[in-house]
């Protein structure tokens, strides 16, 4: 306390990871609001309460900072989905929890999703690479779920060969639906997740006949 | 004949639309091979057999030319899908023909797909706008199919409300699977289309139980 009183104007020293988190939080917000090109390091510095030289020293210039945002947000998203999927659940419930986690993340962190997906896609270049690496991790996660599910039901090799392709299709469907959802925020996250779950679990064939999928227990959602 | 003989070095006069097609064909090929940044107008001019000043006069500079490529390829793709879908067929066969047309187009014109999707996505900027407009047309096409199918089966309003969202999911699934397929060209187009058809028509629930969808007539594929 007495030390602080002797240096009243000095910014309090914080561990590097705390500073980095402050910077990244601010950067996601500013990139999301203004887009990559119009976002200024001055505003990120203001919002973060961290000087520009310190931002440069910790996370580099604007392009590095944007790439760091994509990496962090992607990791958080993948972790949220992986945490939602429990291997001992039946396959439909695993898929349901994974989809729920995905749409909950997108819904709770719309800014993240904007940075992660729309901004990174529309910027192109090195950011698309970060995005593709993230997609590959998501596809591998879904693929593992499908393989577990298929082999536990005794599906043959020809059928399981297609799991990676179907995982890619499912990841694409989730991304595309999340983009649609950004423009239709009035739909609750659980409803959006339920639509996709029904599409990929029941299929249109059952849906047009009025057969829908519901979670195994009423409180599972 | 005698006129041509008197002007042997002059390039033969062709209607403007023929020249434009030559230029666009060449541009798609060169953009697809080298990527937007590394593609040179000199090479496009060489491949097209059309002078650079004429390319500039007809289709503008590199950015305009790339946008024109996306617009043309997107229109061809949408027309191929729309032609595949016949309103008097049952909904599953409409969807099947639409998916077949999509994967046949991507398979036959891998260069187009590369330009349309991968290149345009990784370039970002104005090209993403062209791409988004194309996606919106594709989503509207699928949505119309689902609404027709749903209302003909007497689905209620709540269910039909979700058709646009499901159409967006299906378009995203198709794009993502087509990207996966570019890296797995050994899989026949009909097989890839069949995987997606089964996913979205039967759903994983039926698939893991071994129930698969097949076209109504053996020769329909």
Automatic annotation (TrEMBL), chains A, B:
All residue ranges annotated as the HTH tetR-type domain in the record: 17-77
GO MF annotations, alphabetized: DNA-binding transcription factor activity; transcription cis-regulatory region binding
Keywords: DNA-binding, Transcription, Transcription regulation
Domain of life: Bacteria
InterPro entries associated with the record: DesT_TetR_C, Homeodomain-like_sf, HTH-type_TetR-like_transc_reg, HTH_TetR, Tet_transcr_reg_TetR-rel_C_sf
Keyword Acetylation recorded: no
BP terms from Gene Ontology: negative regulation of DNA-templated transcription
Segment forming the signal sequence: none
Database matches in Pfam families: TetR_C_46 (PF21943), TetR_N (PF00440)
Lineage, uppermost ranks: Bacteria, Bacillati, Actinomycetota, Actinomycetes, Pseudonocardiales
Known DNA-binding region: 40-59
Protein name in the entry: TetR family transcriptional regulator
